């Protein structure tokens, strides 16, 4: 008992108080640990900021430092400091120096002036091998990470390990005591909007605030679409469901001001913090949800003006289920099909939904199984694969809208190098939903000649679907020559009136990068050449027809449609003379042909602009396409396309006629089997004098081969 308790006398009261000895020992140990921690902290402050503390001996700056570590002497044998004795025995200095240089220094990994040499010491034990009753434990070669002290076996894995640290922003060793986290942020400026980004801002899924400067054109197109909608009615509530840095929502609020009420959402806490900082950086007020009690910036009664941005932290599906919006933009990492049902659940009538899909590996037919899993669509790699990707996304959007009894009108579909952008207008009601669902069809694609046609409407099973193709490859080639792709969107990809208003907004706000693309899209939507392009539509300039509705473009009419900040009823928005557009969507030819894909061997093709004129003179509607710089969008069948291409191609050299059956214009009989547009004298177009002389020379070469050889 004397060992378990001690007696202490309190002088003030002369009372003996018995305290357990174990408690006193615990207090003494705690005091010692606190003192030791203070000493270690004081030692940390003395360490230089650019030198790793307690680093492994395999991490050195120079080869001379590694040799000093070995303590090389001419007359003594020294062991290797990075190898056990059983692996490398002690030797003289010249052999040890060569060993350190060849087996340790040359295979090292460099990072910020330090070399992480390979180490053979027993730092990383390998799993033991049981042989009989004995256990042999091996020691494997490995590297020591200067940042996290991890041990990596392979050099390539070590390089990837260091790169992952850099992508996460961990560019300094944990041994370094002086850190400056705020200085690691970079300032980016786009469209008069400043944002702070992390050093690894361009690496998705590696950073909390992803920012891709290459998507500037994508952001400008979305801004133009929102500006057009803001001109129709205001104020409108718009949502950036995946804010990241908040650059897109900041541009909306900064340029459109009181016309929009911007909500930026992100489910990541660090991203929400950075969005708030960027709002203050651009002198914008932040309106935070009242439920976020732990935030010091909570504002419950902030006035809804153009300088206020609402920032929310929740899942995108939850935000779109809880509130209604006029404009919703979805830009997740990868596919956006997981958010389509929520987006169309509460979007208002005649609102706009835009989505950016970055899963190009599946959309561009590089991962066909992923496209089938996400979009329920069967696609293959074709010459028009980018338009195929856009129609695949629109088909998924159409099905999601139809499940909510809503139809869509495609305003814009753009397939760029890294993403596919689709902008649609929402039409509420079962009838528009049925009309949109009927435009989702299958596509019959010939794998021999690249001819394609949408499958006819109807529920009857056709015995030979190959008969729908204009080509005769199935009859001349053995086996199956065509595949069934889809389901795909078979309607129009562009709305000409909406694109023209987008171009006006791009000119007004000085968006130089979006203007050339919008001009190309307008020519593609009207299926005309750039020389016939005009910024004003041929009809009424103050009205544009969309979704069977005439909408005025003047701001006075948009202001007259406001009744205490709300939209009027449908009879105000809809014109009295409501009419359907008829065959307006059929005027845009589906898909395009690549002129290089169908070129003739041994023949020089005409210039692309001249070839467009030749097709236009033959009676077909033609235009260039943004999907492919060498693509031609036309309503001409592939047979007539090749006919005109051969007609105006010139031989590369005289001997090219002997290489294959290259037919000349006088011998072409395929055009007689073409549909009605071919009756416009394809054989006798008006050509220039140089073209006539070229064709005449080609005919003379075939008719008199001996004379040409003699010449």
From TrEMBL:
Keywords: Isopeptide bond, Metal-binding, Methyltransferase, Nucleus, Phosphoprotein, RNA-binding, S-adenosyl-L-methionine, Transferase, tRNA processing, tRNA-binding, Ubl conjugation, Zinc, Zinc-finger
Biased composition (Basic and acidic residues): 18-41
Biological process annotations from GO: tRNA N2-guanine methylation
Subcellular location(s) of the protein: Nucleus, Nucleolus
One Pfam family from the record: TRM
Record GO terms (molecular function): tRNA (guanine) methyltransferase activity; tRNA binding; zinc ion binding
Limits of the C2H2-type domain: 145-165
Name by which UniProt lists this protein: tRNA (guanine(27)-N(2))-dimethyltransferase
Species in which this protein is naturally found: Thryothorus ludovicianus
Lineage: Eukaryota, Metazoa, Chordata, Craniata, Vertebrata
Encoding gene, per UniProt annotation: Trmt1l
